[in-house]
Recover the amino acids of this structure.
């Protein structure tokens, strides 16, 4: 779609692109994965599915150990990472998120540690429950994090992005758990993965509909477009494999691999589209000019 | 929890000062860049590259962590289409928004509202998370990366985010900011914001009466998307012509919608995991 008529200052960007490094895009992936694994594991525990609970729990603890590492590496001044915890601000999804990451990492780490060592069952159950609740936040707050910026394709997608990320989190967590769990105990994980895959695709569709053809452009062009397209293909393929062959271990592993790759690529697509929409002033000027003219 | 409000500086109690700001009247800007130089000198802002942009006399390019005043140059041919017969020149600066998204989203509390109602980053608290950078609807802030730049003065390349402080140090000593002090045409005026707004409205009417129909104020409306600017402008064309957003909105204006969507998504996810367990366990 060609750019609607607009003026600019030598075509220079109005907004600054984020300075976030690839670590942040990977964190969007691992954060949701670890969070939803905690929730899945605790739900399995409540349902008495100890085999699934144990695997989801331990994997959640391992992945959640990576989250702070990725986030600290991205800071301009990494030695000051603890400054994140000197205030709590609901106006800042990153502040709220830092507390969620810290609390989820701690509780899921304790739960996984107790599980592996076979000690302190009460403390483990308590930590598991807390990590499960925090995991729901881990899977969705990142949508709020990117939406609460001036980046056009993130801010205007604020109603859908948390749902897109929640879907991806369920998809990847269900897939990872299904791959690691004997098939007869993994049915809930497969169901969770398939629900998540459907949710992610549906919400991406809804998001692009809301953005409209012009503002959805960055999601279809360049590396964001390539990643997004590949992600959709892999999501459909992975879901099909998991649904059809998921009761056999090989099928579960293959389907899970496809879905994990799809989940990562979707996050990369969203991440890159944001940068692209900041780089070209038309995505800032055109919608704002329309609003300003409408008020006249 | 802290939030930016229009009267944020009033929480200082007896130490609260009148809200101070800039009125940049671009109709009298001559493009001398004295503001850029004075700002760099006073605030020890590091060098940001010696490059030729090819965009008229603008070799500064944009506001950034190392550029706190930026003079834009627009060349026009309005009469017979032969040669340049009109210049638009404008000195851009941090807007010190009434509802400042950068301040709202800062997770460390490094960005705060001063007793003068201005918005300042504390260099000794900022950990360089970079969230304020895409939050700003004007693209004012950037990070001074640790591995870039040749100067290593105080805070030169510390990996933190930087922007105009409205010369907080000078204000505390009762002095006007360096850029306003250096401006030879009073294109940059400094003072209590309410007085500046009244003066600017008068000036704008005067220009329109004199036949400059294109004169308009930008950022004087407290009902705009950022609650009005602490540093506002008189422009002679649409804001986007100067590289300014036509209808800026602080992203945190939609905070309720944003958290609402996240909470709904979390609830739905919780429902999905319980459903998966119930159906999958049959």
């Amino acid at each position: 779609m060609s750019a609607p008529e607009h003026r600019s200052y030598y075509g220079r960007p109005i907004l600054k692109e984020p300075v976030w490094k690839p670590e942040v895009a990977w964190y969007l992936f691992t954060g949701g994965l670890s969070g939803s694994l905690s929730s899945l594991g605790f739900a399995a525990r409540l349902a008495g599915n100890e085999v699934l609970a144990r695997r989801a729990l331990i994997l959640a603890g391992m992945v959640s150990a990576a989250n702070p590492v990725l986030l600290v590496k991205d800071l301009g001044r990494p030695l000051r990472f603890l400054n994140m915890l000197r205030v709590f601000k609901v106006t800042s999804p990153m502040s709220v998120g830092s507390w969620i990451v810290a609390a989820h990492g701690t509780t899921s780490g304790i739960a996984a540690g107790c599980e592996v060592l076979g000690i302190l069952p009460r403390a483990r159950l308590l930590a598991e429950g807390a990590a499960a609740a925090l995991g729901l936040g881990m899977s969705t707050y990142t949508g709020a994090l990117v939406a609460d910026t001036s980046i056009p394709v993130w801010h205007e997608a604020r109603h859908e992005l948390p749902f897109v990320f929640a879907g991806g989190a369920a998809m990847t967590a269900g897939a990872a758990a299904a791959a690691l769990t004997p098939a007869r105990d993994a049915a809930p994980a497969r169901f969770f993965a398939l629900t998540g895959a459907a949710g992610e695709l549906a919400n991406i569709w809804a998001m692009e509909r809301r953005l409209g053809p012009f503002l959805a452009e960055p999601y279809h062009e360049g590396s964001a477009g390539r990643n997004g397209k590949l992600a959709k293909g892999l999501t459909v393929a992975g879901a099909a494999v998991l649904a059809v062959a998921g009761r056999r271990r090989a099928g579960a592993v293959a389907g899970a691999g496809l879905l994990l790759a799809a989940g990562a690529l979707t996050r990369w697509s969203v991440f890159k589209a944001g940068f692209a929409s900041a780089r070209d002033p038309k995505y800032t000027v055109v919608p704002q000019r329309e609003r300003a003219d409408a008020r006249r | 929890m802290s939030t930016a409000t229009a009267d944020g500086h009033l929480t200082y109690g007896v130490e609260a000062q009148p809200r101070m700001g800039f009125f940049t009247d671009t109709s009298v800007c001559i493009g001398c860049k004295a503001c850029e130089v004075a700002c760099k000198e006073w605030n020890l802002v590091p060098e940001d590259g010696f490059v030729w942009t090819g965009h008229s006399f603008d070799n500064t390019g944009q506001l950034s962590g190392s550029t706190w005043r930026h003079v834009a140059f627009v060349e026009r041919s309005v009469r017979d289409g032969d040669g340049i017969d009109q210049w638009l020149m404008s000195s851009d600066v941090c807007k010190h928004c009434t509802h400042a998204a950068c301040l709202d989203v800062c997770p460390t509390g490094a960005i705060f509202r001063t007793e003068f109602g201005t918005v300042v980053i504390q260099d000794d608290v900022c950990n360089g998370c970079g969230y304020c950078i895409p939050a700003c609807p004007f693209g004012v802030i950037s990070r001074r990366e640790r591995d870039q730049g040749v100067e290593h003065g105080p805070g030169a390349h510390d990996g933190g985010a930087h922007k105009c402080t409205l010369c907080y140090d000078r204000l505390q000593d009762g002095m006007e900011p360096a850029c306003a002090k250096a401006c030879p045409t009073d294109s940059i005026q400094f003072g209590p914001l309410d007085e500046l707004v009244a003066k600017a409205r008068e000036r704008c009417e005067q220009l329109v009466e004199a036949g400059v129909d294109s004169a308009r104020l930008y950022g004087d409306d407290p009902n705009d998307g950022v609650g009005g600017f602490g540093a506002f402008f008189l422009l002679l064309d649409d804001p986007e012509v100067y590289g300014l957003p036509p209808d800026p909105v602080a992203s945190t204006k939609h905070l309720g919608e944003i958290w609402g969507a996240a909470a709904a998504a979390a609830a739905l996810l919780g429902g999905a995991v319980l459903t998966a367990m119930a159906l999958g366990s049959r």
The mean pLDDT of chain A is 96. Chain A is about 75% helix and 0% strand.
